Amino acid sequence: MKARLSEERQSLLGALVVIALLPFIFGMIPLRGLATLLPGAWWPALGLNGDDVIALQTAVVNFRPFTEWPTWRFLWYGLAMTAGVSLISIVLSLPLATLCALGRLSPRAWLRLPTVAGIESIRAFPVLILIFYVFTQFSRLAEGLNQPFLRSNNITLSVIVALTLYTTVVNAETIRAGILSLDKGQTEAARSLGLTYAQALWLVILPQTFRRVLPPLIAQFVTLVKDTSLGAIVGLLELYHRGQILYQFNRNPMETLFVIAVIYFGVNYALGQAAQGIERRVTGSRRASRA
Amino acid sequence: MNPESWDLLLRVGLLTTVRLSFLSILISLAFGTLVGILRVAPVTWLRVLAAGYVEFFRNLPLLIVLAFIFYGLPKSGVTFPTFESGVIGMSVYTAAFVAEVVRAGLQSISHGQIEAGRALGLSYLQLLRLVLLPQVFRIIVPPLGTVFIALVKNTSVASAIVVEEMMYQAEVIAGRYFFPNVFLITGLLYLVITIPLAGAVNLAEQRLRVGRRRGR
Prior knowledge:
- By secondary structure, chain A is mostly helical.
- Chain A is about 85% helix and about 0% strand.
- Chain A has 13 helices and no strands.
- The longest helix of chain A has about 40 residues, at about 255-290.
- The two termini of chain A are about 20 Å apart.
- With about 220 residues, chain B is an all-alpha fold.
- Chain B is elongated and about 70 Å long.
- The model of chain B has no long low-confidence stretch (mean pLDDT about 90).
- Classes of the chains: A mainly alpha (about 290), B mainly alpha (about 220).
- Chains A and B meet through helix 1, helix 7, helix 11 and helix 13 of A and helix 2, helix 3, helix 8 and helix 9 of B.
């Protein structure tokens, strides 16, 4: 346990070192420029000249937007959009994924075969293409229905639909594996107690399944938060797209992308830690109940 | 779909996607293995750096990695055409996932083997090359296959930094002929790469398993 904790700290420390190195590797903070802060008498020995002063000033100008409050407010709305779209998608996907998993496990072929075909074909698609396809079809549909709500929110809604579809098929596989990992005796015991199939599922099978698959579901949520950035390509105003708008305005792509990368890292790292904490609690409580 | 569209999609797009995937698989395999080995290296700061690399890139969207490379490399004095930027971005991103798989494989090998190797007088590098890595690559073929199939699907994101692969061509065709169903066709065309790749992974897994049995 102790060794594992220190390993977690190692990866956080390492990630912070990588983050700290990036501005120097990509020349966002010029080392020679920083050296011009030294007394002028040392400049000839270090080979510094006026260009290095300009480089330092450019670096200061490029980072200046991030000392101002409106920049952060602008990005905050993007983060809220990212969080909103991914939360809605994961929440919608869970009941759908459970239904798909049950459909795939069903003994009836007319239910099982279409589910398998649907899951496998959607899983084969790259997420970006799914987003594009749903976006084009959805916009057409919204245009045809002439519904003001659908028309004005077609980008957000179609990204949500596409990500929900994709997350549903991935989670369906996870949940199916969770159901299969349960002991068959559980179902048999529940049925012999006189529960119907639906009751056995709802009261016995699914609660245990969800406790087991919670960590992979949270891992999928991290993937989902990352995939939301693909919405930027169809114009969803989430964190990355707002970053694009910012750097086109301020002309500092590297600095803005760096800040956005750090935000994404922070959010996803926190989610990953949450997944590990839950995993530890779930396995711990299961062990405790067994003892 | 007229012949010109098929030509764009298949001869230009599919070919670029295949080249992009193939090069990225090779580079990320080599680089990811290196990072994975460093994650269990006996030197602490190397371990910390490798762990940090994996943690950082696993938590970033691929789109940001690609954009960073696309804007960043020219600034630090290296100018690459977009295709090479795409290869570097895909490789850097996927290497983090490969490293995790390699590390898990290395840690799954029993400690007694390392001790036995050291007792025979092998140096650390010899131990890795002769004892650990041959076993690790046998174990990790299936999870590596999953990572690489995800890589092939992820190459579609490279269209955002104007790599002229399949997704990029699909956007061109959809725009030029107002034909959104091209995305459906393109999505299915990725199967042309992923199905043979999955087959190759299965074949490799079977052959390696037979080899192990014979060895015993």
